[in-house]
Structures are given as structure tokens and as C-alpha cells.
Here is the input.
Amino acid sequence: MVYGRDFYTQDARDIARTLIGARLVRVLNRERLSGTIVETEAYTGLDDLASHGRAGKTARNMPMWETPGHAYLYLVYGMYWLLNIACEPAGQPAAVLIRAIEPVEGLATMQLHRGARPERFLTNGPGRLTIALSINGDMNRTDMTITDGGLWIEQAHTVADTQIETGPRIGLGKNVPEPWLSKPWRWWLKGNPFVSK
DNA sequence: ACGGAGATCTTCT
DNA sequence: GAAGATCTCCGTT
Here is the structure.
């Protein structure tokens, strides 16, 4: 089942939790490239100082404000595209960042995109998985509630709370005073080797 | 195993 | 003009 509009209209933190164990699917040249989502991060509203949405509407963050369920692709350090999905009702700048997946389908193609690397290093980070799945700025605003855009998330299997760990966000710090620093913003599958460091 | 620096360029101040 | 939701490579331990 492809996750639809109602799912993405929920709170970003609930979605980040639920997406652990779900299947991210990318169709490229009629081939399915997919993986189990093993790490996510939530970015909420105007009060979230670490979120791009904090500064109000800008040309870049516009997808965060629009209809939930659309992809928000963002370039970091001039080199890496990060995949987010807009969440919560339209008008609120929220999103969930997909930080890592465990490859399931299309391993050989992912290896081509990432170079000859051990499987373990193909998709274990937000900038790496987009390279492996050939996702970039061209896919910004793709509607992920339908399959036409070649990018969506499928319900796979339910993961129990006991298998999930949470923690603070990664790669951020100085913009984030308490209590944001200590709240859980990141979810990952306990013990999974593809979780980023 | 760990740490530091460079890559590379868009965005917002 | 500086920083950034990252990754890789090269150095030293």
C-alpha cells in the first residue's frame, strides 16, 4: 500500500516514527530500486529553530508549506541532495528527512551509482541514499502519494516500539537551544548496520 | 579507529 | 560573506 495524503497530513514526529520499517521505492528506467527506511528525522513548525521553515516562506523551503506528501529536495554543502517529505496540513512548514535505508531491490544499480562499495556503505546516510537511488533536485515537489512520479513510500511491516531508538538530531547544534536539543527528533531501527553515524 | 580538512555552491544575512 | 539537515580522503595512533 502506498502511503497517501491522509498519512502525510499527520504530525511530522508521528510520521517519522511510523516510517521506520516502511519501504522507500524509486523507479528508474522501469527498474525498482528500494530499501527499508531505518532512520528518520523530524522538522516541525516555525518554533523549530533547526528547521528551514523557521524563517518563514522562502523560495527554497516552499515545498514544506504546501500540500503534504510532496518531496522536498534540498542541496547541502553544494554537493548532496537530501530527501524530505512535506508533512502536516498545508500552511505549516513541516517535513521528515529520510536519513538512511537498507537496500532491498536494485542492489546492482545502486552499486553503479555509488561506485564499487560494500553494500553496507551504499545507503547509510541522507546524502548517500539519494545518490544510490538517483534522486536529485529535479524530483523536488514530486507527489509521493502516487506512483506516477517514480518515488513513493509503501507500507511494509510494523515495527514494535521496543525495536526503535530515538535521540537528538544529527549535524545540528548551535541553532538548537534547550529544550530542543534534548527532545527526541531522530528515530532509528535498533542495531541496524545502515543507520548513519 | 579516530580526527581533520577539503570539496563545492546555494541560501540567507 | 559566512554557514550549511554531508561525505570522502588522507594523516596519525
Q: What stands out?
A: Residues 52, 55, 58-60, 74-79 of chain A lie near DNA strand B (CB under 10 Å from a C1'). The longest strand of chain A covers residues 31-43. The beta strands of chain A are 23-28, 31-43, 71-76, 80-86, 95-105, 151-154, 164-167, 186-189.
